[in-house]
C-alpha cells in the first residue's frame, strides 16, 4: 500500500515537473511570451459593444469612440471622455448629436469642447495588461482622474495594438510607437500643450508611459508633460517574473530564482524587457540636465498580489539615484525615508523627494490590491496635486 502511494505520488510529481518544463519551453517563444506578458486576448468585454459607451455607465454623448492611426499604419481604438460638469453645461447639444463610433472625431461637438478650451487639461490613460478600454476598474478610474476638476479634465484612453479592436500584435516597440502616436494626436490634432497633459498609467502601462516620457524628454526641443502617475509599476520584466503569480497564485519563474544560472539563461529569451528602472533614471537625468520641470508620482498598494509593492520602492530608488551626481544606495535611501516619510496609519505612507526641477513622490497604501486602487480618492488627489503644481491657479 505504501509502495503504491509512493508510486502514484512520484508519477504525479513527474507529471507536474513535465508540465512545468513544457511551460518553460513555451515561454522561450515570442508568440507565447506576448500572450503571457500582455494577456491581450483576454478582453473581459466580449459581450459588450465598445461603440456604445453608455452600457458602461456613461451618459449619452459623454464618451466618443474613435480611432488614431499609429505610425506603423495600424488603427488604435480610443475613447474621448468628457468631464461631467462640462457635459452638464452642454447636455442639450451633446444629446442631440449621434452617439457611437466617430469616423471623424474632429466633427464631434465633444472634441471641439476639448480643442477650443484654452484651460482644458487632458489625461492620457495607458492601461495595464489584458482587457480593453472598458474593462474592469478602468471605467471607475476615468471618473476618479477627472473628479477633482469636473469641468476641464478630459480623458483620452486607448487600446494598444492587439488589444480589443486595435489592430496588430503587441510588442515593446509597437506599444511605444502606439503611445507616441496618441501623444502626437493630443498635441497636434487636439492642440493641447504638453504642459496641460498628464500621463496616467497602471501596471504594464507604467512601462509604456516611462518609455514615452523618456522619448519626448530626449527630443530637441524636449517635450515634458505636466506630470506622470505610475500605479503599480514594476522594475523590469526579468524582475517581475521572479515575483509574478498568475491570478495571484500560480508562479511563472519564481521557483527558478533559487537557481541563478538557470534563471539567467532563461532570462536571455525574454523578448520585451521593459527596463522601467533604467528609463525612469534616463528621463530624470534628461530633465535635470535640460532644466525642465517634472512631476512623478508612484502609487502602490501593499496588498497587491499581482505586482508586489517592493517594485515601486526599487523604481523610486532608481529615480532618486538619478538626481544625485554621486548617487545613493538603496539602504541609504531607506534611512532617509525612515526619517522623512509621513506615516498615514491605515492609509499607508508618503515620501517626497524634491530637486530644483522636479518632485518625485512615492505613496505606498495599505490596501487597494492591483486594480481596486484606481478608483480611490488617492488617484484624484494625485492628479490635482500635479496640475496645481504646474499652475497654482488651477482649482
Walk me through the structure.
With 395 residues, this protein is of the alpha/beta class. Helices cover 41% and strands 16% of the residues. The protein has helices at 2-27, 30-38, 84-89, 91-96, 109-115, 138-146, 172-189, 204-217, 237-241, 260-267, 276-290, 310-321, 330-340, 377-390, and strands at 63-69, 75-81, 121-126, 153-158, 197-202, 227-231, 245-246, 250-251, 294-301, 342-343, 349-354, 358-365. The strands form two sheets. It has a ten-stranded mixed beta sheet, sandwiched between helices. Helix 6 (138-146) crosses helix 14 (377-390), helix 7 (172-189) crosses helix 8 and helix 11 packs parallel to helix 12 (310-321). The model is unreliable at 13-19 (pLDDT under 50).
Amino acid at each position: 500500500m505504501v509502495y503504491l502511494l509512493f508510486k502514484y505520488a512520484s508519477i504525479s510529481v513527474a507529471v507536474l515537473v513535465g508540465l512545468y518544463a513544457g511551460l518553460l519551453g513555451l515561454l522561450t517563444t515570442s508568440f507565447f511570451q506576448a500572450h503571457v506578458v500582455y494577456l491581450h486576448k483576454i478582453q473581459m468585454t466580449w459581450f459588450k459593444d465598445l461603440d456604445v459607451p453608455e452600457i458602461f455607465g456613461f451618459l449619452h454623448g459623454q464618451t466618443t469612440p474613435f480611432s488614431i492611426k499609429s505610425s506603423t499604419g495600424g488603427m488604435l481604438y480610443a475613447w474621448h471622455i468628457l468631464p461631467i460638469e462640462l457635459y452638464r453645461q452642454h447636455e442639450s447639444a451633446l444629446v442631440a448629436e449621434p452617439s457611437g463610433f466617430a469616423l471623424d472625431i474632429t466633427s464631434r461637438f465633444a472634441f471641439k469642447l476639448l480643442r477650443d478650451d484654452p484651460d482644458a487639461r487632458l489625461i492620457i490613460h495607458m492601461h495595464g495588461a489584458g482587457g480593453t478600454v472598458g474593462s474592469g476598474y478602468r471605467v471607475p478610474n476615468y471618473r476618479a482622474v477627472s473628479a477633482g476638476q469636473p469641468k476641464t479634465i478630459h480623458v483620452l484612453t486607448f487600446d494598444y495594438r492587439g488589444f480589443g479592436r486595435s489592430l496588430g500584435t503587441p510588442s515593446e516597440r509597437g506599444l511605444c510607437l502606439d503611445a507616441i502616436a496618441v501623444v502626437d494626436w493630443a498635441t497636434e490634432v487636439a492642440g493641447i500643450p504638453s504642459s496641460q497633459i498628464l500621463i496616467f498609467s497602471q501596471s504594464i502601462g507604467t512601462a509604456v508611459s516611462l518609455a514615452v516620457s523618456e522619448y519626448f524628454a530626449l527630443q530637441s526641443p524636449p517635450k515634458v508633460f505636466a506630470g506622470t502617475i505610475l500605479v503599480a509599476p514594476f522594475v523590469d520584466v526579468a524582475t517581475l517574473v521572479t515575483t509574478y503569480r498568475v491570478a495571484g497564485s500560480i508562479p511563472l519563474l519564481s521557483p527558478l530564482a533559487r537557481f541563478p544560472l538557470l534563471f539567467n539563461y532563461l532570462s536571455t529569451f525574454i523578448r520585451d524587457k521593459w527596463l522601467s528602472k533604467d528609463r525612469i533614471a534616463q528621463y530624470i537625468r534628461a530633465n535635470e540636465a535640460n532644466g525642465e520641470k517634472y512631476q512623478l508620482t508612484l502609487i502602490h498598494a501593499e496588498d497587491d498580489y499581482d505586482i508586489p509593492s517592493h517594485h515601486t520602492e526599487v523604481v523610486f530608488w532608481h529615480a532618486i539615484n538619478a538626481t544625485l551626481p554621486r548617487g545613493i544606495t538603496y539602504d541609504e535611501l531607506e534611512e532617509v525615508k525612515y526619517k522623512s516619510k509621513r506615516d498615514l496609519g491605515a492609509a499607508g505612507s508618503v515620501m517626497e523627494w524634491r530637486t530644483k526641477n522636479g518632485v518625485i513622490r512615492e505613496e505606498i497604501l495599505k490596501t487597494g490590491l492591483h486594480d481596486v486602487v484606481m478608483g480611490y480618492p488617492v488617484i484624484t488627489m494625485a492628479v490635482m496635486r500635479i496640475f496645481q503644481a504646474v499652475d497654482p491657479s488651477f482649482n
